[in-house]
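Section 3.1: Structural characterization of target chains.
Under the original work plan, the team committed to producing a structural model for every single-chain target entering the pipeline before any wet-lab resources were allocated. The record below documents one such target. The sequence was received from the expression subgroup and is listed exactly as submitted; it comprises 165 residues.
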Amino acid sequence: MAIKRLLTSCFGLGWLPLAPGSWGSLPSAIIFGLVYYLGGSGALAASLMVALIVAGSVVCVKFSHVAVAATGNEDPNEVVADEIAGQALTFLAMPLIMADVSGGQIVSIAVLGYFLFRLFDTVKPWPSYRLEELPAGWGILADDLMAGMYAGIALIIAAKFWILK
């Protein structure tokens, strides 16, 4: 049981004070930025984002029930595996439009993607609230994946017309 809560909290990030979801979003953004900053390929970045989406989704759906039972909350703050997945989804399509980017552009894209995801995850535009009604871990996960899609679209637009211009 303890290992399941450790996994859903992303090795304790979900137990940090003040906005655990923001802490849980950091690994995906940092990994994305570092891959490019250190000269990794778009294929590597996309592969790592897919791996984070799958891992975060599986952990959330399969194990979040343990945190729900322990806290009595249907969407416990400590569960941040959904943020890992949603934040990674934000960056998934970026390798398609990023060619010959500078270090500054990479940092700008990673930071903006992080904040866009946090914005959409917090505001929860339609139909995010409805997705929270899905059963078990699916409801915890689905709204974050929707936030990741919204943030990814906004990030592509910002990158094409502002950062990568």
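The mean pLDDT is 91.
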